[in-house]
Amino acid sequence: MENAVSIRNLSKTFGKTPVLKNLDIDLKKGEFTVIFGPNGAGKTTLLKLIATLIEPGEGSLIINGLDSAEEPEKVRKEIGMLSHESYLYGDLTAEENLFFFGNMYGLGKQQLETRTAYLLKEVGLETKAEERVSTFSRGMKQRLSIARALINEPSLLILDEPYTGLDPKASSVFEHILKSPAFEASSKIMVSHDLERGFALCDRILVLKAGRIVYDGLKGDFSGFSEFKEACAPLLA
Amino acid sequence: MIRSLYIAAKDLKAEFRTKQMFNSMLIFSLIVLVVFSISFGDFLGDSSKVEKLAPGVLWVAFTFAGMLGLSRTFVMESENGCLEALKLCPVDRSAIYTGKVFSNLIIVFLMEIVTLPFFVVLFNYSLDSGTLLLLGLVLLLGTLGFIVVGTLLSALTLSTRTRELLLPVLLLPVLLPVLIPGVEATAGVLAGNGLSGISSELRLLAVYDLIFFAVSHLVFEYAISD
After folding, report:
1. Which one of A128, A154, A168, B165 counts the least CB within 10 Å of its CB?
2. How far apart are CA B105 and CA B7, in angstroms?
3. Residue A68 contacts B where some CB pair is shorter than 8 Å
4. Mean pLDDT (chain B, rounded)
């Protein structure tokens, strides 16, 4: 089966500082991978490379069979990204934000209307569709940013610290959407410091430390969270 | 191209909802015109002196007012990480530049259209429709040159802490090839010269616009890269 992500000999340097060193990773389609690691391990840099936001110094990155260096626009079409930033325009309404990003992803008018209505309902903002985002509470913005990340029906979801600042309602909406049939099939890569939540959601665990993969295993390798926590604690120090 | 129009439409919708950029530019340009008209009050009856002073005053007002707007153009994108969201969209990154050029051009040109009647009144001009159209063409070409370079430099200075200071310092020297023919063409139009009298300045402006649009279009991706 084709991999969702294939990384070969990937390195990235900022100035003279190496951030990622010769990474080789294969992530299967439909797999939920969580990346743990201490601060400065290179987790966000790895996600930005996969999202084509930055270019690798060395190595190759294949997303759903597409070379990200040669066909970055096609790769971006496959990706949805949820960050700790909302990626929303405060002066536009919730619906206008989703329409704008849907248009940028090339969605047709009918598809865009259906998709926007569905996502607003899923995140519980259907009655706030015509209100400006600047008037939203933090939790409402977070829920809308979940809808924004999913507007293009991404086959690969990149989640960069998605729980940062999420209120309990937004967290449960987020988890409900991730587990919903519409998104169950998509591959997911999440960076998180929340070991328990990350472990609960994932199929596979990577631990990144000082730019290298120091652990790559399956959730099934552990009998439960306690065993995982005990095993990974030295790696995350 | 359609994606650039979506970006421009989004910017215009947000701007005309709040009018933050438009109002500050308009007020600034009006203040400049009023201050200069008061300062040069003694000359206003002498048309030969007005003809020498007024075109420069008009371009000073438009250039500095436009700069106020340009310094804000990518601020909206940097808030909440929206520039990163745009970079994640499956479009060539130069589409972001083109969209921003469209929206900036419309906002700044609108500001100029609203300011122009005040200029005509304050500096005692009486312009027929042909002259106004020609003046509009000069302003459009000059403003386009200002916007194509200003939009690129605004993106370049986005991540600097002193962007409001840095933008004019970088922009003004690059703008001289627009400002000089712009002021000369405006003086020619206000003096009653027809299209033939200002054709060389118009050609210069058009060439500048084309060259700097093409160059900026090519290098914009690097200007917004991390």
Report:
1. A168
2. 13
3. no
4. 88
